[in-house]
Amino acid sequence: MSPRSPVLARALVGLLLALVVPLAGCAGTAPSASGASSSGGSSAGTTASSAAGKRLEVTIAHGKASGDTGRVPVAAGTPVTLVVTSDVADEVHVHGYDIEKELAPGAPTTLHFDATLTGVFEVELHKAGIVILHLQVE
Amino acid sequence: MTVLAHGVGTRTDLPIPIGLALFGAGAAILLTFSVLLLFWRTPRLGGSGSGRPLPAGLQRALDAPALHRVLQALALAAAAFVVVVALAGPPDTPHNLAPWVFYVTFWVGLVPVSLLLGPVWRVVNPLRALHQALRLAVPQAPGAERLPSLGLWPAAGSLAIFLWLELVCPGRSEPGTVGLFLIGYAVVQVALALWFGEEWFAVGDGFEVYSSLIARLSPWGRRDDGRLAFRSPLTGAISTPPVAGLAAVVVVLLGSTAFDGLSRTVFWQSGPGASNDPVAGTLGMLAMIALVAAMYLTGTWLSGRLAGQPAAEQPRRYAATVIPIALGYTVAHYFSLFVLDGQTTWILASNPFGARGVDLFGTYRNVLDLTAVTAGTIALVQVGAIIAGHVVGVTLAHERALLSAPRARASDQLPLVIVMVLFTFGGLGLLFGF
User: Fold this and answer.
1) Alpha carbons A127 and A105: distance in angstroms, whole number
2) What are A92's strand-pairing partners?
3) How far is Cα B182 from Cα B200, in angstroms, rounded to an integer?
4) By percentage, how much of chain A surpasses pLDDT 90?
5) Which of A108, B69, B261, B276 lies at 20 to 30 Å from B4 by C-alpha?
6) Three-state SS for B302?
7) Which member of A1, A37, A120 has the closest CB to residue B410?
8) B403 contacts chain A (CB < 8 A)
9) How many structural domains compose chain A?
10) For the residues A108-125, what does the mean pLDDT come to?
11) pLDDT the model gives residue B408
């Protein structure tokens, strides 16, 4: 870097600042965007947060999951009730928490656990090989 | 089947909070300017001849071929054991050692080990022992004189294949997949080494090249006169020979880690990657590598044009300066996997074949402790690694520019600096999770 070019140095600072400002703005708008997309995933409005904890419902038909799918945020420590109904026999697995339960065709199966571990965890169906939701515990 | 981003794992990290993302971006800019404008106006790092030599006796012991062969034989035995466990051990990933050893302990562990100790995999590479044994039957290496013309391009190819296996391949976490990959990789690499000679491994074995590149940032190096020396990691990095294909290796590493980050975002998981389709994954990975390549080539090309330097050599001239950025990304993405899911290796090592009542090291009854590090610590390590990688990268690029043209104008470096800053924002953005 040549010491004889203070103008250039200033130009450099200006240019990079010009680069930061829009990016900072972009970062600022991101949370609402991600919030929108995850609430878009849980369309049916079955998500209910209360003193009793968080209740999530997912229904699987023809290999497709609907209900509280996508990225579902939960506060750490919340008691979670997950109700899964599948049209075929399968096995549901909450990774990290390592909770597994058999699903009988058409019968709602309920899982209870306290969301004490932080991170993003997959909830998947073993036989269908699909991820029905990502539990984001923060 | 586990369909997590990086081969195996039970969890992924939370998106980093907005405060940290903004702080990280600000710190990256500020530190870049401090380095560039205030402290560093003449070349400061020694060249490849500098460094304090190790005692001659110690060097003789470390360089002894016998030591290398013994270490390689041990590594070969360990690798063969992992392959046997992969193919004959418990069939499900949570109870089979092989995927955890390969994706977490070996691939991620190679990073800290090489960073602290130098090019370890070059010394212990079990494929070198295998090649040595087979060379008794095939003494001639017909392609030996063609090898230098290949540069590091073969390593870029073999790394891309491994990274596709780790990040995209269906069934990548299955023990059988890991076992077959290890056998296939060994057969192809040893066959190519028989054709090109043992030095093939230094340019064609992705794992050895990866370890050697990271070792460039270790405090150990070999001087021009052949002495092992203790020196500044920055000196080691700046004296990386600008071989053809070096830029390709770095771009593949950076691009695939960026894809790993992308595949953890809400955007990817609820959009193109929702079906966990290998075609979408392959295209996504190729697109991220192409994006990184385009940005890097544009930055180096513009910088070279402004400085009036030959265009063809620009990418490899600056490739070593991207190593710390790639390393920062790697630490950011794999730190939690290593310290959390990495525990699985030590649990399963006590009972590799899942036999009843076997507990060799008394660890088999341990359970994975996912609270060993907090979410806050993970986020700090992630942001810190990306900023540190960025600052070291910009510093090295600055030094390289000063070395190649001491009277060059500062503005000549601007395109490359902007590209590096964009890499940092991209890295933070992916961690932020969009």
Assistant:
1) 13
2) A101, A125
3) 18
4) 20
5) A108
6) helix
7) A1
8) no
9) 2
10) 89
11) 67
CB of B345 closer than 8 Å to CB of B100: yes
Shortest CA distance to A41 belongs to which of B10, B274, B262?
B274
Could you tell me if A116 and A66 lie in one domain?
yes
Q: Residue B328 is encoded by which pair of tokens?
A: 């920062």
pLDDT in tens, B226-255: 899 999 898 989 889 889 999 999 999 999
Domain with A86 in it: 42-137
**Same-domain pairing of A34 and A55:** no
**Would you say B212 and B202 are in contact if contact means Cβ atoms under 8 Å apart?**
yes
Instruction: For this complex, say whether ipTM is above 0.95.
Output: no
- Structure confidence at residue A28 (pLDDT): 32
Interface of A with B in 59-118 (CB under 8 A): 70-71, 95-96, 98, 117-118
Residue B434: the pLDDT is 55
Same domain, A79 and A129: yes
Would the CB atoms of B432 and A27 count as touching at under 8 Å? yes
Nearest to A2 among B21, B33, B409 (CB): B409
Amino acid at B80: A
One-letter amino acid at B278 equals: P
Top-confidence range, A68-72, B325-329, B422-426: B325-329
- H helices of B35-125, in order, are 56-63, 65-88, 97-100, 110-117, 120-124
For chain B, the domains span: 18-432
Amino acid identity at B190? V
Residues A67 and A112 in one domain: yes
A70 & A113 share domain: yes
Residue range B41-99, pLDDT digits in tens: 777 787 778 888 999 999 999 999 999 999 999 999 999 999 999 999 898 888 899 99
